[in-house]
Amino acid sequence: MKKIDAHLHLVRDLASYKGNGRSNALGNGLVVWDSGFKTRLFPAGWGDDAFRADAARKVMEDHDVAKAVLLQGSLYGFQNYYSWQVAKAAPDRFAPAFSIDPFASEAEKIVKRHVEDLGFRALKLEVSQAGGLMDYHLPFDLAEDDRLGKILDYLSSYPGFAVAVDYGDSSQASHQPRSLARLAKRYPDLDFVLYHLSFPKPGKLDLLEKELALFAPLPNISFDLAALQDIAGEQTYPYPFCQEAVGLAKEIVGAKRLLWGIDAPWSATFNDYGQLYSWLEDAGIFSEAELADVYYGNAERIYFKADHVAALKASRDPLFEGDA
């Protein structure tokens, strides 16, 4: 069955910045941050200190992944321009999302350049307190912050613009389901995608149930299923807790609002990439038609709208026009 990976990170040059400082590549896929935290970011064979387009295409071809949504994250450093270059060369295969720090003095200029010149039609907001904006800025209310509000006001002039949000788990100040619900009501023409299914944790499915019930009446909020295994601490296939959480989500919000994704490369260092999609087939949660939506149709509808693809095809970078 063909698939769209709705949560893929390309890394041309590692430029991480989080609360524990900047990253330093050690080679062989390993990285150490200024704080001394050391981890593997890239699976063996994917890249020593990067995960570039050629490597991503090979992974996709090996697993029958037809398309991918290219996201940003503080874990790798924003790769906005590289994502645009890759997607511009293959706009029917890649949908790029850019990230922005709303606290930057030229934030509005940055947003307009990416939307008006580079043709982006998706924004990734990584606001979590464990690696996003609230890891290196003081916490703020997503629905009340004027800086973020100005950006969303502008994006709302492009109906169907996708706004992807990673707001961390329930232990973090960034975890603000009510604020996100308010934003979805305020901007009904924006498509919000809440990443990692609102971070379900073992023993807290009642919290997930309450949050999904809050979002259920808001048709412009969908959810991706990336990295649920990492969040739950499950490395034993077929990930029974993740199956339970996704079954609950289908029951409350329906299969049309769930998007498959991996959150590679990092998530593929914990679990096999192939198993990170086959678990949904083996779970028996979805009919074949529903699984086709989760694997492909829902991401196609949100990220690969005809006008989105057209904007990317028509995009140009005036800064480099005329260069040899």
TrEMBL record:
It comes from the Bacteria. Residues 4-304 form the Amidohydrolase-related domain. The keyword Lyase applies. It holds the Pfam family Amidohydro_2. InterPro entries: ACMSD (IPR032465), Amidohydro-rel (IPR006680), Metal_Hydrolase (IPR032466). Keywords: Lyase. One of its GO terms (molecular function) is hydrolase activity. Coiled coil: none annotated. PANTHER family: 2-AMINO-3-CARBOXYLMUCONATE-6-SEMIALDEHYDE DECARBOXYLASE (PTHR21240). This is Amidohydrolase-related domain-containing protein. It comes from Lactobacillus delbrueckii subsp. bulgaricus (strain ATCC 11842 / DSM 20081 / BCRC 10696 / JCM 1002 / NBRC 13953 / NCIMB 11778 / NCTC 12712 / WDCM 00102 / Lb 14).
